[in-house]
């Protein structure tokens, strides 16, 4: 038997229209919503729809008013009033819209419908505006304000105060204003008049009074004008530009400004929405008599960096054509155009001129030298930093950058020591200089010196944590040395000195460890051995790192390790946790920084090689932990462990960096061992890195491949004459001598000999990869980084750039720029230089 079909009840006939209207309303599309609600109301007088329709008209009216269309706003408000229930919103605004378009008939009719009680209680904002219109003597307004309202009662007092002000009977005004209640519709006028009366005796009091007038008050424009009148200088100009033309001219006259000054204000006002660099430059020249010739000159000089086309007008108006200032101006112009080579040349000429002016220009010379370093690679920047210290020998930052260069970029212990001594001579109490000195002494194992520098630091800054750590490390290092040399009677003194420092408890455990070795070597072997084992296990997150640290410390103090190993848990079938691997990474880095030779670190790693290899096979680590481990292994050249880690990780994470680490490990860090298989693998990794926008990895790989090419003395000359007599020799690196001859053939032989010598010096001083990094640093802003990386793979391009750098460092003009070299190597068409007569 079939079930009787049941017909679903139909939805309300206008539900979808109402939903559509509601959607428009919520989105602020009030016109669309209103049309739908009007259509709905034709079929049903729904109170909710009437309310929504009224709200649509009101919101549209307010929007029109915001757009400066009061006439249209008033019409929409009238539509709103037809659908809305009392009390009507925005009534005050409606009346003011009508008055603003001079529709006084409707405005007055609406005001007439408001009695005194309604005006005082329900329409306080309208009362303020009606009071304002009374003050402004708006035609016919007084007859329509309820005569028994508070506004009219207070109006008589205000009228008397205004009459007293016009008659200059100022002593009566304050008494009259005191009669006005606190919430009077004329309260803002009261603040305005009192502020005016307080001038010029108390500007601060006047500003306080004016600040009480709210932004929406009809008296706010007058308050802004009076505020502008009180300002001086640029603040006056800025404030006056916010005023209407009539107000600004009134204030200008009150300030006794000249016609020329008023003209300048008007000119700025007309162009303020399009006050370009050119407009500002021209205004400064046109009105330089007002500004002052010197101030106008300084301003225009600064503007030339952004408006180089003004140079001719500047030289014409300020007569700087043959002065040294012309060099500075040219330098700024070239910098703005990113032509840093030309800018450097002008700065150096400017410096030479400043040198003739004596000591008063020394600070300026030093600042320019330091400014020049900003766009140079470290190897060239360090020379200017050294030059700057001849003229300002107490600049800490310059010393620190030089020291960092000879420590990190181009390690040179002798130069580092020379500049450290110079820095300490001029800045003996500088914290950062003393930190550098202490670290340097630690590296040289001059522990007493390191301790002295750390103590000097603590005298200056008793809570300096770094100084305490340096002093602590110095005491421990000295204690190790004393144990090793069996001067046991001095060990306890060093350890006590270390323990007395208020320092982290984790660090203090290191002192406990050294004390254990001291007890073992000098007092009681069993007790000492137990102390060593207990401390190692409490300091480390696992057995492997305990063995690692135990071996290194025993080696540093020349103590047998075998007895210690027996007291520690076995690590034969052991797996390192991720925290332990991170701890080991940090330990390797720390010992790597402290020790001149890494053989002890390698032997310590050999002690835990088995658990490390097992852990790498299981690979229960996050990728970041393994990347940190591989980076550290590469830094210390431990390629056996690096190979194990990279091989395992390369099968899990598809990132080009893992291919790089695997190939580096296979080649034992020697690019010359690259075979065709590994080279192709790296080329593929470069493409992936490029696609993944991993520029660091891409450049790292490219640099390794470039090192495999190797180009020593690409010109193949042995002495000065060989540079030209024998020409350039071919080599197998991919370097094309014909390109270099073509680029530099126009340069005189005597200059090329100098450039060639400088080039050889630069090549011998820096590795090819360092030179490539210098080029990347200096020119990255001028060329697309990916394009520059590709160009640097061409040895001929790098040689050409380094020849250009050599010429610039010698201040030799070779009539060839970086951009022209780029164009030569990227343009498929034959290249013609500006100096080519054909």
From TrEMBL:
This is Tetratricopeptide repeat protein. It comes from Methylotuvimicrobium buryatense. InterPro entries: TPR-like_helical_dom_sf.
